[in-house]
Specification:
2 domains, 488 residues, alpha/beta, 20% strand
């Protein structure tokens, strides 16, 4: 697909609107149009305050126009919004699709809803989402409900607060939908021990910086990958390094992802519990064995039940479970069966994701692309999940979106009261600084005025190991940042 733009710089937003309706098209952006090409194309032109959008695909052509007073405040923002509205209308007529999030393409709809509600009140925020952004009532209600809970947790954060993220980028196998930088244990076996040693060194170095700056630790999150893919001893050492180098006396939450049920053992659970974790995730994604096979996971639904019960026996009373709507081979009926089995286990929280077709995933590169009907089914799945989890006493507490999700849907965390995942809210809201350790970790430093600066670790474990000293030197940027942006 070719996107022609002229007279403005709204490339990013208009590309995103194109992807809502044509997620698998390669989008080429041009600023000049000599002749219409023999392929799908859309043109967005601004001349003064006059706007026009023309779409062409084979025998189909459509055009919309509008205008904006150049003298108004926020002229550019209004032009960008109207371009998106016009493109949305044309594409919706052409495809028969009406994405429920309207023209809203940002990953943090709850954050926008909360800001508008604070400034204008909920009723005005609701009207803006509906009339200006074309968001459905169903999704407006979801954004409002999640934003209310988010706000109460965000208010716990202080100006000197931070969270710690530690990456363990190894998995038993790579799922077909996954694009995370993670290595299978079999392929990366020789890297795991040197990686463990170095990440402990980085944790110690980062803890020393946090102490010198007088930062206040709110939450810890060990993710991946699958942290429980490494040995119990290696996991113990990483957690012990956190305990030995950070002040956890006021830490509100310590999460460890035990994502793959087939990696959960008594020894690993004992190591996690002994080192003070307060929350773990056991993530089946589905409780249908055939679907698990389709996505390349080597465990069964029964192993999920076994791992969950094992965690309960070890005393874990805050367990999250992740599910994905729209997986290949999953039907509405099998998804309902998954929800029934999850409800029977009675975890404290459930995160319901929508399948996202990442560029580098096996599904995408292999051409196993979902059709429109998959998006419709995923929509039914999400509505059923909300109904089922609400009946079980859970409410939405955080919300985010990804590009290329089937049906242009969302990911929602549901939790019983008092069991919300705090780190999830802090990272998604960008509430405070996140100090990250490990391969692919991104430290996000937040100033009092909202300015954010990032420090990137190397992505791959072999890079992380080979260039560790060079990477560690980057972390001097943390103290430099706080010298330039002192805590107020």
């Amino acid at each position: 697909m070719i996107l022609y733009i002229s007279g403005h710089g709204f490339r990013y937003e208009l590309e995103n609107i194109c992807r809502l309706f044509f997620p698998f098209d390669k989008i080429e952006v041009k600023t000049e149009l000599d002749n219409w090409p023999d392929t799908r194309a859309v043109r967005a032109v601004r001349e003064g305050g006059s706007l026009s959008v023309r779409f062409y695909d084979g025998d189909f052509a459509a055009e919309k126009t509008d205008c904006v007073n150049p003298d108004i405040d926020g002229f550019d923002d209004e032009c960008e919004r109207l371009f998106a509205v016009m493109m949305y209308g044309i594409f919706s007529d052409y495809t028969g699709m009406t994405p429920k999030w309207g023209i809203l393409t940002g990953v943090r709809p709850g954050k926008l809803m909360r800001r508008m509600s604070d400034n204008e009140g909920e009723e005005k925020a609701r009207r803006y989402f509906s009339e200006k952004l074309l968001v459905s009532d169903e999704k407006i209600d979801l954004a409002l409900e999640a934003s209310r809970t988010e706000q109460s947790i965000i208010e716990l954060s202080r100006p000197d607060s931070f969270s710690l993220y530690v990456s363990v980028p190894f998995c038993p196998t790579r799922c077909s939908y996954c694009s995370f930088v993670s290595h299978s244990v079999e392929q990366a076996k020789k890297l795991i021990e040197p990686y463990t040693k170095l990440v402990c060194d980085e944790i110690a170095y980062t803890g020393e910086i946090a102490r010198r700056l007088g930062l206040h630790l709110e939450t810890v999150y060990i993710g991946g990958g699958t942290p429980t893919a490494i040995s119990a001893d290696q996991l113990f050492r990483i957690m012990a390094a956190i305990n030995g180098n950070f002040d956890l006396s006021a830490c509100r939450e310590f999460t460890v992802e035990a994502g793959r049920p087939d990696t959960v053992t008594d020894e690993k659970l004992a190591a996690i519990m002994k080192n003070g974790a307060t929350r773990i995730s056991i993530n089946p994604q589905t409780m249908c064995d055939k679907v698990l096979e389709n996505i390349g996971r080597k465990h069964t639904a029964e192993q999920t039940v076994s791992a969950f019960n094992m965690a309960r026996r070890h005393g874990f009373n805050n367990i999250n479970m992740d599910l994905i709507a729209g997986l290949p081979g999953d039907s509405y009926e099998t998804f309902k069966d998954t929800m029934a089995k999850i409800s029977e286990l009675d975890p404290e929280s459930v995160t319901v994701h929508t399948l996202s077709m990442k560029r580098s995933s096996k599904m995408t590169t292999g051409g196993d692309l979902p059709d429109v009907e998959v998006g419709k089914t995923a929509d039914k799945m999400l509505r059923y999940a909300k109904e089922s989890l609400s009946t079980g006493g859970m409410k939405p507490y955080y919300l985010y979106r990804q590009s290329r999700t089937v049906g242009n849907l969302e990911n929602t965390g549901f939790a019983k009261k008092g069991f919300e995942g705090l780190y999830n809210i802090y990272i998604m809201d960008e509430t405070h600084t996140i100090l990250a350790c490990g391969a692919s970790g991104v430290t996000k430093l937040k100033a009092a005025d909202g300015y954010i600066e990032r420090i990137f670790n190397y992505k791959y474990p072999y890079e992380y190991i080979d260039r560790f000293e060079e990477m560690i030197n980057r972390k001097s940027g943390i103290e430099k940042f706080y010298n330039e942006h002192p805590i107020k």
